[in-house]
Write a structure and sequence with these properties.
Radius of gyration: 19 Å
Oligomer: single chain
Structural class: alpha/beta
Number of helices: 11
Shape: globular
Helix content: 40-55%
Number of strands: 8
Number of domains: 2
CATH superfamily of the largest domain: Rhodanese-like domain
CATH topology of the largest domain: Oxidized Rhodanese, domain 1
CATH architecture of the largest domain: 3-Layer(aba) Sandwich
Distance between the termini: 43 Å
Strand content: 5-15%
Largest sheet: 5 strands, parallel
Strand order of the largest sheet: 4-8-7-5-6
């Protein structure tokens, strides 16, 4: 290792070090969905505002997030699309290299199949085919995440409001619900509710994270 590679590796290690906390990875995943205030992030993660702010400062020092003052609040967002790409690559690497990750995935699948069997989950190819055939795409994430970006043609139907909106949906039309990513439960619960009320519903398992990972437009 020469003096230049030593300096480079020191900087690479800054990224690795800041990602050494599951809490900070959680914050990045939430910010990948939409910009948020410290207060919102604290509520979503169950951390105190002080702890959330401390984690965000470390992410900011590593240039993983940016911050902007808006009125009384500081709004955080991912520093660049490269951070989103890296999160997807990190998940793929962990899934490939760590048996423990695959075990967690298997347990998640086993638990959620009681609500949404495997045949009700679609991948990207089937999603696109069903949309071409006229399927309705529902984004069941919170409204602020939908506003920050969503799959083309999707309608916003936040999970807490889904029961009230069902009467507006046609039982003659196939419905595909999606949320944040493969481990988000919003879409699974939405499909479970829709199916129980007689709708032909499917779950796009990769969600918004998978869509962005494939460099799809929003």
């Amino acid at each position: 290792m020469n003096v230049f590679t030593s300096r480079l590796y020191d900087q690479y290690a800054r990224i690795a070090k800041v990602l050494g906390s599951p809490r900070r990875i959680d914050l990045l995943e939430l910010l990948a969905q939409a910009p948020r205030s410290v207060e919102d992030l604290a509520q979503l993660t169950g951390m105190s505002i002080a702890n959330t702010s401390q984690h965000l400062q470390q992410l900011r020092q590593a240039r993983m997030v940016d911050a902007e003052k808006k009125g009384l609040y500081v709004i955080y967002r991912l520093a660049s699309p490269a951070v989103q790409t890296f999160l997807g690559q990190l998940a793929e690497l962990a899934q490939t290299q760590l048996a423990e990750v695959r075990q967690v995935e298997a347990e998640f699948q086993a638990q959620t199949q009681a609500q949404v069997p495997t045949w009700q989950s679609v991948d990207l190819a089937e999603l696109e085919a069903r949309l071409k055939a006229g399927a309705l795409l529902l984004d069941v994430r919170p409204p602020e995440e939908f506003a920050a970006g969503h799959l083309p043609g999707a309608l916003s139907a936040p999970l807490p409001e889904l029961a009230q909106r069902m009467a507006q949906l046609s039982k003659g039309q196939s419905i595909i619900a999606y949320c944040r990513g493969p481990y988000c439960l919003f879409a699974i619960e939405a499909v479970h509710q829709l199916t129980a009320h007689g709708y032909d519903a499917r779950h796009y398992r990769e969600g918004m994270a998978g869509w962005l990972k494939r460099a799809k437009a929003v």
